[in-house]
Please model this.
Amino acid sequence: MLLELEKKIINKISRIKSYTTRCIFGGYEKEKIDDMYISQYYTFDYKNIQNLIVKDKSCLFIDIGANKGYSVKMAKHFFKNCFVISYEPLKSSYKELEDLKKLYDNFEFKNVALGAETKEISINEAYNDTGLSSVFKLNSNYKYFGRDIPTVNYSVSMIEANSETEYWNSFNTDIKILKIDVQGYELEILKNLKEYLINDNIDVIYIELITIEKYIGQPSYTDIINFLDCCGFVPLHINPAYRELNTKFVSVENLECGYTTEYDVTFVKKKYLSGIYESEE
Model:
């Protein structure tokens, strides 16, 4: 009985996943995104920023923690006049990101990590669950859907985030968007970019915040929120799409309820809030 129920749930989710992808991306294989969470939930963040802020302006999308390139596809789909720079040190992501360079113009990929200084560091790549990879080690008490996550540790190159700002400015675009998803290491990068953020060089920040101690030594999500507030950013949209259950009988792909252990927030500079006080004629 349980097996039949599981099959029905999986079939239902597969139909939703396929339908959502077709609706959003119109069948273009180049821009097709198969991940249910990317296609069903995350599109709102990008579409909202396109309509409110980017519009027909030129845009630089700085993608720190690119993983397999989901954000690259999203940025290229919604921001038409957009140059994307991705940073991702994982060995397993290299081929897929290099392949994206063949599909998209105005896309650059650097196989390095960004951080507080330039040096060689150790990274913990989560086997078969690369989205959990981090500079920090996973907390031994944390179980991903009821199971331990094996990791492999190896050395990668890290460059100081602030050393890239001159290069970012060389694009001379109207809008700059910073996306950071580095599993607990976000605050270190933001601190290194503090002066750059305060001086209105970045208009929008997409960032992932973790609500539980998944990693040893990770800062609290409240520390990140407070830091961005001090830099003049306010939340525009909160997306609690990622949920977990401590059980092996359900996976993230077919989860319809659970605990929000991570959530994505879109921050914008406070100057953009003036739009809510202006009536459209």
